Amino acid sequence: MPPHRTWTQPEDDMLVDILTELTLEGKWKSDTGFKSGYLKVIEQKLLDKLPGAQHRE
């Protein structure tokens, strides 16, 4: 099991912004939730917008 990681407020805010962005784009949203592959898109957007966040413990 991976270690627990606590997100910072800026990381939380950025995640909400990215989820909103994906929803408004319409390309990743379906009637029952997000389409397959959306997690990789979120991960890449987080890395682009918050460089170095993945290395914080």
List the helices and strands and how they pair.
Layout: H1 9-25, E1 29-30, E2 33-34, H2 38-49
Antiparallel strand pairs: 1-2
Q: What are the defining features of this structure?
A:
mainly alpha, 57 residues, 2 helices, two-stranded antiparallel sheet, globular, single chain
Radius of gyration: 13 Å
| Percent helix | 40-55%
- The shape is globular
Round the mean pLDDT to the nearest integer and report it.
82
Question: Which strand order spans the largest sheet, edge to edge or round the barrel?
Answer: 1-2
What's a quick, concise take on this entry?
With 57 residues, this protein is mainly α. The protein has helices at residues 9-25, 38-49, and strands at 29-30, 33-34.
Describe, in plain words, how this protein is organized in 3D.
This protein has 57 residues and is mostly helical. It is built from 2 helices and 2 strands. The chain has helices at 9-25, 38-49; strands at 29-30, 33-34. A two-stranded antiparallel sheet has the order 1-2. Helix 1 packs across helix 2. The chain is globular. The two termini are 15 Å apart.
